[in-house]
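Researcher: Please generate the 3D structure of the following complex. Treat every line as part of one assembly.
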Amino acid sequence: MSGTSLDGLDIALCRLTGTGTETAIELLNFATTPYTEDFKNDVREVFAKREVNQEKLCLLNAYIGSYHAELVLEALSNWNVSPADVDFIASHGQTVYHAPQRLHQQHKYPNATLQIGDGDHLAVKTGILTISDFRQKHIAAGGEGAPLALYGDVMMGNKKDENRILLNIGGIANLTYLPGSGNTSEILCTDIGPGNTLIDAACKRYFNIDFDRDSAIAFKGRVNEQLLSQLPDHPFFREQPPKTTGPELFNLQYLDDAIKRAGVNISNEDIISTLSAFTAESITNFIKAYIPDRNRLLLSGGGAKNRFITKALAEAFPDISINDTSYLGIDPDAKEAILFALLGNEAIAGEPMKIGHNPAVLMGKLSFAL
Ligand SMILES: Nc1ncnc2c1ncn2[C@@H]1O[C@H](COP(=O)(O)OP(=O)(O)OP(=O)(O)O)[C@@H](O)[C@H]1O
Ligand SMILES: [Mg+2]
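Model: Done. Output below.
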């Protein structure tokens, strides 16, 4: 898994038994291989941009596939695992553009999304059967291509008589609500708004760092209420879930527009505090509005380490238990990668899963090693 934060490639070595809700998952090894600054800058040339150098995009599609293969081989070698012992790789690829209709607004065109890093390069270079490009099928079957967490969350997180919210704070924040009633028509899986993406972008612009480690800057600054009240002023927040979004919307232009409307001139620290509060507030407001019956909140993603955000969540929901997904025996950093391993397993051995109104489909494309 390589997320929108461009922090690195998450590699989870999983042993899976069974399929669907009967799947047993064992995480044998996990590593996030951080991307080099060079690689990140390369990807940023095409990432979430409406106009790009098409040659660059084409080159990156092959290059990322081959680079991800190298990182997989390196991880396997570190773990003393032979590629011949791996049944398949499930590769998400790198999202370069996510364009649901709600964003592109061109009714002639469907929901669309683009992940690059072609699976054939992974398969040939590693010698391992590769399943990739999961999101197109979800769109073809009527979805927005995201969040795909739904399927794995239902497999891993369902618990009778407990109303659970699985909240992943990656670049974008998304959640899956799993009602204890077991009534699948009540399950909700949706993006909420920004997770780390705005905070990271502002850290890069104002401090030349990748992210606000342990919320050190956010805690130093003060939340600016005028700016905080302008940030959610976008139709995305008024649209009904399920819905999806990305850094195509939540970017520095989005921040600059809000600063302009607020008419404020505030310190760089205050901007980071206010963006952190914006992420926390959009999550808490969403949960209060759409999920009245809740017993337990289970966090994953890099944002689960953002103490400014987790403190705000604890203050907003004093009456519910908040844990990270280790509570389920799932490493919160590895969760998104495990989700794709599960989808890969479904593609190979499973049946389409019917969950409420969501597309019941098997996702992914096969790349053969030979
Ligand atoms: N110690 C920390 N303190 C604060 N923030 C952190 C910390 N560790 C990680 N993060 C945040 O988490 C981000 C990485 O999160 P993650 O890998 O879950 O996102 P992602 O790769 O974009 O995945 P997704 O596809 O779910 O958006 C970093 O960019 C950073 O903002
Ligand atoms: Mg990541």
